Amino acid sequence: MTQKYRAAAQDDLIWHELDSMTLLYHRTSGITHMLADPAPAILEVMAGLSLTAAQIAARLTVTYEIEADIDSEDIVLARLEELSGLGLVARVAG
């Protein structure tokens, strides 16, 4: 079974764009995170859904009109692991 991920609830996040970075305050932890692309885009396309890295990569391709490539799923998976370490994304049962 492929691992699924769920982003923190949108009500728990306060977003602020700052040049090429996004500041993201996580109410639950009380921590403000500085995120660079594609992390903010990944959180946005998850929209409260439990998704696999492949599903997220596919949504990014459509939403941001980027070309899909072999590495896109690996890039998303690496960012999901980082976001998980920050407490902004959780692994969930499929």
UniProtKB/TrEMBL annotation:
Top-rank taxon: Bacteria
InterPro entries linked: PqqD-rel_X (IPR027599)
Protein name per the record: HPr-rel-A system PqqD family peptide chaperone
Protein source organism: Parasphingorhabdus flavimaris
